[in-house]
């Protein structure tokens, strides 16, 4: 376990084209992409880069994907870590991982740091059960001090994702920290159809497949649910020994994904 990677570093791969819908979020992020591409140009103008950006939205709406796409569009390295990894870590380990990651990102600037599940470490201090979350608090403090310590020529943007912005420590939202919010919503009908198109691109579809109809029948599905649905449809086709994926496979897949979602809901409340 001690040899586990401290954080992951990816070459950019995703772009805005891989994301259907979320047009407002893309528009907001274009400014940051442009800055990351031409930092000197902006710095000469005296423009400062927004340091931290909070990506807010329900599970599976593409927060991680969107952060990756910002890196891809700007063609800069992407460093990521997840808040949930810090739970049950020894005191000091979380803070040192954060320090290392920021150091690497600075070295390779312009770059992006992505912190998934920020709420796992960024909960309001003192709100924990039983208190004494030393580790979590140290990790959070390290993130804050790293963000405060950026110098103007260091072109590093920190993007954090959460589906619980309401529980975040207010210290995280102060100016110079995560002071910008980008919201991702569950996709509306047209976006659902486009998401289905993206995730069935490599599938041989039968002529009877009507993705617009599938989109109409999947109100409330997230992008991740739709990706899952497309894959389940292909699996049903395989089980049917069919060389193409038919509409009935999409219908079966929809029922299966819906059942799964219902089961999860029953478990959690
Ligand atoms: P979580 O909160 O559960 O971490 P998330 O919001 O970070 O989820 P992602 O992990 O980015 O969501 O999304 C999961 C997958 O769902 C993506 O890798 C992508 O394949 C698909 N997906 C989600 N939204 C979209 C979208 N708008 N367009 C295309 N694919 C999408």
From TrEMBL:
Domain spans labelled AAA+ ATPase: 49-188
Location within or outside the cell: Cell membrane; Membrane
Source domain of life: Bacteria
Entry keyword annotation includes Coiled coil: yes
List of residues binding ATP: 57-64
Stated family: In the C-terminal section; belongs to the peptidase M41 family. In the central section; belongs to the AAA ATPase family.
Stated name of the protein: ATP-dependent zinc metalloprotease FtsH
Organism encoding this protein: Marinobacter orientalis
């Amino acid at each position: 376990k001690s040899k586990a990677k401290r954080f992951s570093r990816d070459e950019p791969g995703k772009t805005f084209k891989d994301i259907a819908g979320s047009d407002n979020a893309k528009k907001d992020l274009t400014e940051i992409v442009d800055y990351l591409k031409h930092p000197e140009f902006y710095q000469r103008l005296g423009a400062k880069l927004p340091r931290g950006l909070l990506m807010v939205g329900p599970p599976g709406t593409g927060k991680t994907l969107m952060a990756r796409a910002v890196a891809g569009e700007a063609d800069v390295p992407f460093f990521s870590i997840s808040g949930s990894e810090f739970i049950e870590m020894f005191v000091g380990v979380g803070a040192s991982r954060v320090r290392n990651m920021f150091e690497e990102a600075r070295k390779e600037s312009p770059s992006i740091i992505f912190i998934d599940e920020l709420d796992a470490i960024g909960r309001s201090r003192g709100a924990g059960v039983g208190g004494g979350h030393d580790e979590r608090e140290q990790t959070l403090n390290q993130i804050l001090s790293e963000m405060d310590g950026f110098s103007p020529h260091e072109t590093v943007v920190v993007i954090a994702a959460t589906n619980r912005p309401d529980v975040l420590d207010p210290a995280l939202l102060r100016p110079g920290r995560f002071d910008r919010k980008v919201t991702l919503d569950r996709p509306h009908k047209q976006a659902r159809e486009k998401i289905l198109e993206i995730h069935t691109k490599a599938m041989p579809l039968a002529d009877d497949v009507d993705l617009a109809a599938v989109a109409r029948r999947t109100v409330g599905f997230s992008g991740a649910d739709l990706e899952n649905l497309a894959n389940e449809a292909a699996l049903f086709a395989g089980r049917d020994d069919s060389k193409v994926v038919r509409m009935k496979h999409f219908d079966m897949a929809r029922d299966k994904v819906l059942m799964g979602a219902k089961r999860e809901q029953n478990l959690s409340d």
